Amino acid sequence: MAIKKKIVLLGDSAVGKTSLIRRFVFDQFEDSYTSTIGSKVTMKEFSIHRSNANVDVKFMIWDIIGREGYHALHARTFVGVEGAILVADLTRKETLENLEKYWIPFLFKIVENVPLVFTCNKSDLKGKYEFGFEDMEDLAGRYSGQSLKTTFQGLKSCYATSAKDGNNVECAFESLGNFMLSEYKPDNTVEILLETLFATGIQRNLDKTTPIGALDAIMVDFCKDFKDSRIAMLILRQELARAKIDVNNPTKEKILTAVEYLAEAESEFKDRDIVLANMKRRREWAESIVGD
């Protein structure tokens, strides 16, 4: 039986997180860009060679909105994560800087000391680089050391990758798998409980007067009663896409439309009074948006 591991890809919008996942899981590349809405989970089962034998691992790979500000949704996704791949775009230096400014600190607020692998993506776009591989190595050196107790000869915590030609993509995922298998993990029921409480606290303190803050609260509120978060995210993505929401720049008008659509979806499996109460609460959050 394969060992299940929850991992997440982190980084700004358009760095290529979804493309890396598609390349690793399906060995495909699509030269177009659509912002990830909510979180998306993809499964991949593969074998990792250890010193004594091969170990079957099933990755539950979470791909999340690559936009700062969705604190509650990000915190909820990070609960239970056992490893992460940090992705920067070689043609945009700010995507490297934001890993240290936002993504790593926020991840470590929820799950401390998980194994990390760093990737500078779009290595096929030579001549357009805004930073070098050594810059990513410096960043990896500052953080992978604190997150990895054991290393293996031949494995690295930093790679130059290309989702387009597949360069180093499999190596990055397999290295993370090896690092994760090397970590001793005691029973973490209490740890996950504490992480969940922290994530809930973030939701209570959201600034719902901003479009992103309100949308963040609405998304997490919609997902909270689902036992299977993958199903919740599937419905959520469908209804937000139907409302034509741009998660990088959501508007009050489209958020209100999404509230209506989410209520329609909930009416299929929840009592009418609950649906109306949920819609009223979420509409109040959307109406509280200032300056949009």
> Which sequence of strands runs across the widest sheet?
2-3-1-4-5-6
Terminal CA distance reads 51 Å
User: What radius of gyration results from the CA coordinates?
Assistant: 19 Å
Gross morphology is globular
CATH architecture of the largest domain: 3-Layer(aba) Sandwich
Mean pLDDT level: 86
Explained architecture:
- By secondary structure, the chain is an alpha/beta fold.
- It folds into two domains: 3-182, Rossmann fold (3-Layer(aba) Sandwich); 207-287, no CATH class.
- It is built from ten helices and six strands, in the order βαββαβαβαβαααααα.
- A six-stranded mixed sheet has the order 2-3-1-4-5-6, with helices on both faces.
- Strand 5 (116-121), helix 4 (133-147) and strand 6 (158-160) form a beta-alpha-beta unit.
- Helix 2 runs antiparallel to helix 6 (189-204).
- The radius of gyration is 19 Å and the shape is globular.
- The N and C termini lie far apart (51 Å).
- Residues 146-151 have low confidence and may be disordered.
